[in-house]
Amino acid sequence: MPKYLLILLSLLLFLHANDDRPPIDYNFLAKQEVKNFINMMVKKHKFSRKYVTAVLKDAKLDRDTLARYTGKYKVGTTNGSWERYKAHVLDKSSLNKAVKFKKAYYKTLLRASKQYKVDMDYIVGFMGVESKFGEYTGDYSILDALATLAFHPNRMKKFFKNEFKHLFLLVREKGYNIRTLQGSFAGAMGCVQQVPSVARTHRSDFNGDGVTNPWDLEDCIGSIAKFMHKKGWRKGRTVAVPTRFKGKRYTRLKASHRKTRPLTTIKKYGITPLNPFNESNAYLLKNRNLTHDDIWLGAKNFRVLTRYNNSTSYGMAIHLIATHVK
What we know:
Blueprint: H1 3-17, E1 24-25, H2 32-43, H3 49-58, E2 60-61, H4 63-69, H5 82-88, H6 92-104, H7 106-116, H8 120-131, E3 140-141, H9 142-151, H10 157-174, E4 182-183, H11 196-201, H12 217-230, E5 240-244, E6 260-262, H13 263-268, E7 272-273, E8 281-288, E9 293-298, H14 300-306, H15 312-325
Helix pairs in contact: 2-3, 6-8, 7-8, 7-12, 8-12, 8-15, 9-10, 14-15
């Protein structure tokens, strides 16, 4: 093998090895902010000091998780690129699973749709994007991930410290073993990947067994429908429509799923809707492919999708799965 190929191979192996580093022992109890956290959980939430201390003594430092939230944000670290969504949740196999899931859980989806006044196909979309219908719910230690992100500098430290608190509250309410829970690198769990605060707020016993279970598919259907309803979903209304424009890339207006523009302005700057769009303002949505941009107009319902995960690609993946199974 040529020398330059050996060097390249060694570099790739090094990068891979440093991309998948296992959690390591770490003395969280030496940190003053950890001591303050323990005091708060004891005084405010009435936990046993012995219990909280023992849990934090067992927590490990998850270097992989921490790397995703430190430094400058890069697409693919905490949220996938559009090409990654296309490859992993909009591929033929995944779309076939979406059709089968809708058929298998149609009665439950219909009940959720009627009870919460939401469109069932978008519940299917959430389930597909979040866990491929319960197949992939994560293999990270939730304790290690959230302890790491709660007590080490990162761009979302305040958020994760709050989620770490909710983790303790959740396991007490549910009787879970905090040391054995597994989920995503961000501490999300179950078939719709709920962080602890969401699992507590949007929980649902939709299968009627008396237990709210983030890993139960029927309960997940109920919790997502409940979430959509609370965030203002309008059943039967437009979510997103495709457009056309001149060229391969669009740069005339800045795209955003968080801020709308007047439809008249969007049209003035070269965007033509391909389907009727009956709202006066729209989110200008852009997904960047390897060779070209896709531009869509998003309605108020699209913003509801991104309230769960703040990403245009995420919302569009849900929309395309929903469109496929209609």
